[in-house]
Amino acid sequence: MQILDDREGLRRCRTAFDSRDGIRNSHAAAEVDRRSCAACRTRALLDVERRRCMADSLYHPTSPEIAQRRKDLAPGIHDAFEAFSRSVFADGALPEQTKQLIAVAVAHTTQCPYCIQGHTRLAHRAGATDEQIMEAIWVAAEMRAGGAYAHSTLALDVLEKKGHHD
Question: Domains of the chain: which residue ranges?
Fold first, then answer.
C-alpha cells in the first residue's frame, strides 16, 4: 500500500468506494493506505462523534455484533429480508438511484434515523447528487405537510357539526 497526498488519496478513495462492505474494501481496491485519505480521517472522527451522540439518545448505533445477533435469532427471516431488499432495490422499471431517492424521502417521512443515514449513503453511492437527495427530502416534507392540510377537513367537519349542535 502506498501513502498518497490527501487530494490524490481522496480521489482514489471516492473512485473505489462502491462496495457494500464499505471503506475497507475501497482502500484495498484503490491500494490506498487509509491513513493517507483525508475523507477517511474525517469520516472516522465523525463516526466516533455520531456513535457518542447516538449512545446518549434513544437511537443506539448499530454494530456488527447487533447485526449478527439479529441474524442468529431469526436466520431464515433475516436471509429472506436481505433477499427481498436486494430484489426491491435492484435496477428494474426504476433504476436503483431513483429507488434510493424514494427510500430517502420515505425514511424522512417515517423519521427513522437508521433508514435516513443508510439510504442517504446508498443513494449517493448509486450516483444521486446532494441536490437530488435534498429535493427528495423536500418532496417528503411537502407530502407530510400536505397530509396535515388535507386532513384538516376532519377538523372542519367536527367544527361544522359542533356549530349545528350547540
Answer: 1-59, 62-91, 93-166
CATH homologous superfamily of 93-166: AhpD-like (1.20.1290.10)
Task: Tell me the pTM.
Answer: 0.61
Residue 122: phi, psi to the nearest 5? -70, -35
Residues 111-149 as b/e (b if ≥16 CB within 10 A, e otherwise) read eeeebbbbbbebbbbbebeeebbeebbebbeeeeeeeee
CA–CA distance, 160 with 162 (Å, rounded to integer): 5
Q: How do residues 7-42 score in pLDDT, each as one tens digit?
A: 454 444 544 443 334 444 444 444 545 555 555 656
**41-88 pLDDT per residue, tens:** 566 666 666 666 555 667 778 889 999 999 999 999 999 999 999 999
Task: Choose among 70, 91, 97, 92: nearest CA to 81.
Answer: 70
